[in-house]
Amino acid sequence: MGSAAVYHLARRGLKVLGLEQYDIPHDMGSSHGYSRMIRYTLQEHPSYVPLVRRAYELWHQLENASGERLVVTTGSVRAGPPESPYFLGAKESCDVHNIPYDILTSAELGRRFPGYQLTEDIASIYQADGGFLLPERCIVEHVRAALDAGGEVHGRETVQDWEPLGEGVRVRTDRDTYTANKLVVTAGAWAAKLAPQVAKYAVPERQVLGWFQPERPELFRPESFPVFGVLAEEGRYYGFPSYSVPGFKIGRSHHLLQQVDPDNMDREVHSEDEEVLRQFVGRYFPLAAGPVLSLKTCIYTNTPDEHFIIDRLPTHPQVSVAAGFSGHGFKFASVIGEIMADLAQHGETTHEIGLFKLDRFDS
Q1: How many CA atoms lie within 13 A of 57 on its CB side?
Q2: DSSP labels for 214-229?
Q3: Which of the two ends of the chain, N or C, has the fewest CB atoms closer than 10 A to its terminal CB?
Q4: Local structure of residue 273 (DSSP, 8 states)
Q5: What is the radius of gyration, based on Cα positions, of the chain?
Q6: How far lies 341's CA from each of 61, 145, 316, 345, 346, in Å?
Q7: Do 238 and 230 form a contact (C-beta atoms < 8 A)?
Q8: Domain containing 72 — which CATH number?
Q9: Average pLDDT score over residue span 332-346
Q10: What pTM did the predictor assign?
Q11: What is the CATH number of the domain that holds 157?
Q12: Which one-letter DSSP state was computed for residue 236?
């Protein structure tokens, strides 16, 4: 989100400094792991669909300008019990916004994509435009374009605190002190440490992703395997075809329900982390249930309703915050950058962000 915000501010001709506590890119937060899903089957709420439409436009603009591939189209599957809010919510978002899709039984899905072996009680929504982003490349290209537009970006510089300075701000880091007219906070799992107003509502959670060696690799390539989200009795899982690195990629939403401090979380991977992924792969994707190739930790930052926080701070309107993306935010990074640039420059945006206001938690 931060790299996109710096890019949009810089291309508007504004003087902007982006500060990142780690490398660019890095694997300490929520924006690594070679692939991040993008889809129209947004069971979260129909209000997300116009945002993802704009996100697609901006990702393709960045692709065209950079000459780098950033979006891989595979189609997407959203699957679950046909009467579940998960399934019906994805269908509603498509229906409200006239997004074409197919509803498939588990047998029909397996015939079309033989890597899938879902159980009979699970129905699927297949939507052809879904796929995944290459997150590390997306970040690098946003930063590169921001620098080309006159922006400034510092890696390995940690923001320690900030304070209001009249209608502006003073920001203190471990290297220097800066003053600015506006401050944009897009700190992921560290948002609560820089904007205490969101601390109760943006809670970091430890995640683990796994890559497993398929028995039939040809069934788990982008041309033959759509990205997926599946709600089953074991929980809510998501996955990707093999790409960039070997292996079928799988994760479980809210993994082991471990709330963490991002500065002190357990970044090692343990046998129980692998087992909760392997059991699901073995049952629903048995042709991908070979030896583990890689396991990596990641972080969700969850809000109580799993909707984002995108707002200006009520007591300090010169400060805007984007946080709490609850495991489904990266696809929107391009448009969130545009929104944060709007809030910093104009104090408002033409995008509909009423669902994401901070004061919704007061009611």
Answers
A1: 9
A2: -SSGGGGSTTT--EEE
A3: C
A4: H
A5: 20
A6: 17, 15, 17, 6, 8
A7: yes
A8: 3.30.9.10
A9: 98
A10: 0.97
A11: 3.50.50.60
A12: E
